[in-house]
């Protein structure tokens, strides 16, 4: 599968990843300018941006980029003096396992857009869906009667940023409870102050849960029409993301772990292709095949 096709596939499944591109390479490194790879949250590398020693440095920097949501220009240099053009603002890693050469790799994290689930088939819900898409959010529409069941469905997105209930009736309390149990950080209920308070009172929420539910929903701009109410809701969701720390929840993944190479002392980010040995029921990971071979020889005496 081509790299752009794989990126589109990951985007459709809302899977975070890092797109890595070699922008400069110095021989005798095996990578070349233009080489590409996709790095996943579990440390998997799909593509090629250098040999095993370089991959360890790239993998560690890529996982950091996924956490910070910021692009990184990574310079991977061998141990010792090397004449390699400077790149202001780049992150420099000295990798003693490189056999020579140097790499400069641009790491660009691809984070899914906030996903807003809109419950209901009302004029407010219709306009809200249009506005959410206009500002770059991903939208999922559900009708009130199906929402509770779909919230527990394994096919439903597990990384919902916000849920807005604009059904003007139906199982609103059940929908709020389902969203709270799913860990959604922003839950909005379109209702009057009196009706909204009555629904929440019957749920017996904790203070922390109550803080996640907005009703009346939206910023207080004096909105009266369906379009104005939708504008106030979108503005409040944006405010919660930009100023309130509301994040795009990550999908559950097997997070990469780190280990210490027993030969060279490098910190190795363990991935599916990390060189590995098990001796006397003890696991060892290595930065490259050279360290693994040396360690195995020392242990076996051969």
From TrEMBL:
- What SMART domains would the database entry show? TRASH
According to the UniProt entry, where is the signal peptide? none
What the entry lists under InterPro entries is as follows:
MoCofactor_Util/Proc, TRASH_dom, XdhC_CoxI, XdhC_Rossmann_dom
Q: Where is the TRASH domain?
A: 261-299
Pfam families, alphabetically?
Answer: XdhC_C, XdhC_CoxI
State the protein's name: XdhC family protein
Q: Which organism is it from?
A: Nocardia jiangxiensis
Query: Which taxonomic lineage does the organism of this UniProt entry have?
Result: Bacteria, Bacillati, Actinomycetota, Actinomycetes, Mycobacteriales
